[in-house]
Please model this.
Amino acid sequence: MLATWAGCCIAFGISVGLFGVDQGWINFVGSGKSKAVKTRSEEKVAEDKDYDDVHTEEEYATITSRLLSTNAASKCLGAPDEWKRVPYFWNKDSEAFKDAFIPSSLHARDKLSVEPVVFLNRDRKQFVFIMHIGKRLCGHDGIVHGGVQATLFDEITARPAFWNLPRSVALTASLKINYRRPVVVDQILVLKTQLASIEGRKATITAQLEDASGNLLSDAEALYISPSNEKLFPDNSSKVKAFENTYPGNF
Model:
């Protein structure tokens, strides 16, 4: 009986060991599998070491040209009395810009690859954003992370809020997103946002995320509040006006 019990223990130990080897928990020194794993690891380290997250000027210009060649951009450029181009980034020369989340963390090769192209409508209630989303912003493999979409919606819906709320100051109070379809990485995306309603210091903003062909991928609704504390949040009206006049236009 003792021998039987010992035999069962040995068999169980061997089974666990073989399962561990199969799953990669256990590597035998000198085994082919261990060498293969080491080689792949070394290749990954080398790849990351050589990776440059900044586009060359030529690459940057090529991607920007693709953004300006989309149907969404062509419609805006073809209606200069209704739409004008404005920058995406605020205050590039300020210290705050260096610490801002988008420029410091997402604006890089294979992420938010180049500065998005942005158009402002004459009514100051509508914006169109055209951007390239890279392959290093995944949730599921090959699919843009839902949190990245949320960040982009939070970014773009703020524009109508800034342009229409008192003192051009706006803070996000709520953001609701409907994820309609998976958003594949490494493609051009078009985001449209509009002022839906405004009441005193509150503004409701809606937005849609589409692919370059106009297919709806997700949409959102945000509530913004203009804070009453003027000492903590000073008037931004003059900055917004200067920002609006960065590029020439008919209004």
User: Anything to note?
Assistant: The radius of gyration is 26 Å. Residues 2-23 form the longest helix (22 residues). The chain has two domains: 2-49, 55-244. Confidence is low (pLDDT under 50) at residues 28-41.
